[in-house]
Write a structure and sequence with these properties.
By secondary structure, the chain is an alpha+beta fold. It contains 1 helix and 3 strands, in the order H-E-E-E. It starts with a helix and ends in a 5-residue tail after the last strand. The structure holds zinc ion.
Length: 63
């Protein structure tokens, strides 16, 4: 499975969880190094695109 596909799956899963449990909202982060966006419900991991760790900025919350 390609990295892009994993990212899409994560977003789909996050959206599904958000619909099931709106209280436990997910957050979107964007990599400061490469601009890659991820959606997680916890602290973001190492960037899957550029490998940078801990350089995320919060983006708009999904609704
Ligand atoms: Zn990155």
């Amino acid at each position: 499975m390609a990295i892009d596909e994993v990212g899409e799956k994560v977003e789909e899963l996050a959206e599904a969880v958000g619909r099931l449990d709106p209280i436990r909202f997910v957050r979107e982060f964007r990599c400061l190094s490469c601009g890659y966006g991820i959606v997680v419900n916890r602290e973001p991991p190492q960037c899957p695109m550029c490998g940078t760790k801990g350089s995320w900025e919060p983006a708009a919350r999904l609704n």
